[in-house]
Design a protein that fits this description.
alpha+beta, Ribosomal Protein L30, Chain: A, globular
Length: about 100
């Protein structure tokens, strides 16, 4: 099999740039109470009260917080679940700020 230059460069790009992972972010919004956001973190992720409140305060003061890291499918599932709770959540590639 003969590979073209384009096929070779694609294979090299894949080899040189492995999947870096993904993050689920929760963003501050003017609707949800801080206590509710902490509750969602406890129920959905199973965080203890202190960790859930720390993340909630990060959302409140910094505008967003990373609440999970992992594979793309898992992060997309977290985002869907968080949307069902009424929270504003997105996925981004690790290191893509």
């Amino acid at each position: 099999m003969v590979m073209t230059g384009t096929e070779t460069s694609r294979r090299e790009d894949t080899h040189l740039a492995p999947d870096r992972g993904w993050e689920t972010l929760v963003w501050d919004d003017p609707v949800n109470l801080m206590s509710y956001v902490a509750y969602v973190f406890r129920v959905h992720f199973g965080f203890d009260r202190a960790h859930a409140e720390e993340l909630m305060l990060r959302v409140h003061h910094r505008g967003h917080a990373v609440v999970a890291e992992g594979g793309l499918e898992a992060m997309e599932m977290h985002v869907e679940a968080l949307h069902a709770y009424g929270l504003w959540a997105t996925v981004r590639e690790v290191g893509a700020e």
